[in-house]
Amino acid sequence: MIKDVEIVLSKEAEEIYDYLLEEAKHSKVEASILRAIRDKSNMIKLDVTYGNSIRKKEFPKKYIEKYSITNLYRVELPNFWRMFYTLTQGEEQVKVIAFVLDIIDHKKYNKIIKFKK
After folding, report:
1. Which CATH number fits the domain that encloses residue 29?
2. Residue 20's closest CA among 5, 9, 29, 30?
3. Angle at 48 between CA 37 and CA 16, to 5 degrees
4. Does 32 score more than 60 pLDDT?
5. How many domains does the chain have?
6. b/e map of 10-42 (b: 16 or more CB within 10 Å)?
7. C-alpha triplet 98, 22, 67: angle, nearest 5°
8. Most buried of 26, 46, 69, 70, CB within 10 angstroms?
9. Entry pTM
10. How far apart are the C-alpha atoms of 35 and 16, rounded to whole Å?
11. pLDDT mean over 47-58
């Protein structure tokens, strides 16, 4: 049986999405990031494991505490932006929810992942 996949944005991701939507009206950079989010979301609907799987020991503490994640995927976006998502089971047995936790720029990504220079 094929499962339906629903893309849901966290409050934080939705705020960034709305910001990009507004800025895309007059910025090619933000427009390209927004297009990529839409394209990558469609790719996730086709293959829920589309993103790069993050090892459990590398899960950001903030996502574990806030969302109790058990899996984490990263999708690269233009201009070194990233999108993190986790997979959860929907209320119906035939639905998977790709819950977008964050959409972030490279500087914030390095801070969350604890990237060392």
Report:
1. 3.30.2310.20
2. 30
3. 25
4. yes
5. 1
6. beebeebbeebeeebeeeeebbbbbebbeebbe
7. 30
8. 69
9. 0.85
10. 14
11. 93
